[in-house]
Write a structure and sequence with these properties.
Elements (H helix, E strand, L loop, with lengths): L5 E5 L18 E6 L4 E5 L4 E5 L8 E7 L1 H10 L6 E5 L9 E6 L18
Parallel strand pairs: 1-7
Antiparallel strand pairs: 1-5, 2-5, 3-4, 6-7
Length: 122
């Protein structure tokens, strides 16, 4: 019996073409996705920070993968869960299945905003 997989919305260094995408090797790419307008994305330099902002949120672009527990354990280490990020539900436009993402849990004051997407290939 295989372990359960879950949908994961990614928006930064794990996206196709970015430096940590290799950590998703072998995991099925579901497709590109857009969040409901309830979030903000900030640029931390080497990585982005996604935070909830229901009052002033915007729709953000990213990708969805169907990942297994072993991959999630690797990603939790990369994302420094639960200190820097926390894996929580995210709401995507037109996607009715449960999806999680890594939400930033530190202060974003003074960080520049990324608009609707982040790219480390600047």
């Amino acid at each position: 019996m295989s372990e359960p997989r879950q949908y994961l919305f990614i928006y930064g260094t794990l996206k196709r073409g970015e430096r940590n995408h290799r950590l998703l090797a072998g995991e099925p790419f579901v497709g590109e996705a857009v969040t409901e307008p309830r979030y903000r994305l900030y640029d931390c330099g080497a990585h982005p920070a996604l935070v909830e902002d229901e009052a002033n949120g915007r729709a953000l672009r990213g990708e969805v993968y169907l990942v297994g527990p072993a991959t999630l354990r690797r990603l939790d280490i990369l994302e420094d869960v639960p200190h820097r990020y926390e894996l929580l539900p995210v709401r995507l436009h037109g996607f009715d299945l449960p999806v999680q993402t890594y939400l930033y849990r530190q202060d974003v004051s003074g960080l520049p905003e990324c608009a609707e997407s982040w790219s480390g290939r600047k």
